[in-house]
Amino acid sequence: MRIVALAGGIGGARFLRGLLHTAPESDITVVGNTGDDISLFGLRICPDLDTVMYTLGGGINEDQGWGRADETFTLREELAAYDIGPAWFTLGDRDFATHIVRTQMLDAGYPLSAVTEALCDRWRPGVRLLPMTDDRVETHVVIEDADGRRAVHFQEWWVRLHAGVPAQSIASVGAEDAKPAPGVLEAIEAADVVILPPSNPVVSVGTILAVPGIRAAVAAKTVVGVSPIIGGAPVRGMADACLTAIGVDTSAAAVAAHYGPDLLDGWLVDTADAETDVDGIAVRSRPLLMTDVEATGQIARAALDLAGELSS
Ligand code: FO1
Predict the structure, then answer these.
(1) Segments forming the whole domain that contains residue 145
(2) pLDDT tens, the chain, 312 aa long
């Protein structure tokens, strides 16, 4: 079976581990969000691509869900000793190596898709990991606080401000001029099913869909999503802060309606939201807590089964 998943960071990566567990023989292509990407210390950092690569490649810091396991922070300490920031974005020594290799290849003229393929040669994630685009797209958030109204990089809002200052608006800077990375549209068109994992529907899945051409390609397929919201709250992360910023309620039903019946054919919700009913979308309820790989595999299997039911 050919599966395409549009994935963001931690929730998406954990879901993909379950998807691989339940469908190991499938041909899985992951289209990764690059709107979270940031340049720091002269290096290009791709958090969501790295989270998928490390999680599926066995190198992730399991407790955090991002960054490497068995990390040390000597570089970070030395940079701080030179008063070189920002201190609020924690990069470990092992993680720095990934960003150095990526930046060297980008500087040599390789597109992000080729860089990601090269990094995955080491990590062997078991899926084909494609950036949503090779072009620069960055999520920026407009906030208003004591320093006035201004746009900050998503990572500053997310990590330094803990999304504690309301986002007046969220923009995918550069999205309108971006092109899908090589292989993205072809993988979607060839897919038997497209899965929307329980990633952030605004700054992860939403950003991928904002790349011209991707939403239309996905909408033409059988699409099943997994709700990132259970009982009115995000399972992890701060998707509620993002949903509020775009005027969408934090509920399984509201997120499905936000994706829309033109895009979404099926929607898995948790048993806490069993009464969810969205026009034009087939809703099924089951436990959605990804407590371990086995449980996550069952969720992924339910998504594939629903897709099978809808595409027959
Ligand atoms: N998240 C944090 O909350 N604090 C950090 O210091 C931090 C550093 C970091 C470094 C590399 C990386 O790949 C991810 C990192 N993240 C950190 C997570 C990141 O902000 C989020 O995973 C995504 O951008 C949102 O999905």
Answers:
(1) 138-176
(2) 999 999 999 999 999 999 999 999 999 999 999 999 999 999 999 999 999 999 999 999 999 999 999 999 999 999 999 999 999 999 999 999 999 999 999 999 999 999 999 999 999 999 999 999 999 999 999 999 898 999 999 999 999 999 999 999 999 999 999 999 999 999 999 999 999 999 999 999 999 999 999 999 999 999 999 999 999 999 888 899 999 999 999 999 999 999 999 999 999 999 999 999 999 999 999 999 999 999 999 999 999 999 999 998
Give nearest CA residue, ligand 1 atom 19: 47
Can you give the pTM of this predicted structure? Answer: 0.97
Distance 7 CA to ligand 1 centre (A): 15
Residue 181 DSSP class: P
* Ligand 1 proximity of 173 Cβ (cutoff 6 Å): no
For the chain, the first-to-last Cα distance in angstroms comes to 14
CA of 257 to the centre of ligand 1 (A): 28
Whether the upstream peptide bond of residue 86 has omega within 30° of 0, thus cis, is yes
> Is residue 144 domain-shared with residue 220, that is, in the same domain?
no
Three-class SS state of 43: strand
Kindly report the CATH number assigned to the domain that includes residue 108: 3.40.50.10680
What CA–CA distances, in Å, run from 118 to 19, 112, 122, 146?
A: 23, 10, 7, 44
The answer to whether 240 and 250 have CB atoms below 8 angstroms apart is: yes
Q: Token digits for 227? A: 């709700």
Structure tokens at 242: 């993002």
Distance CA 221, CA 208 (A): 16
Closest residue by Cα to atom 14, ligand 1, is 47
Please tell me the total count of domains within the chain.
2
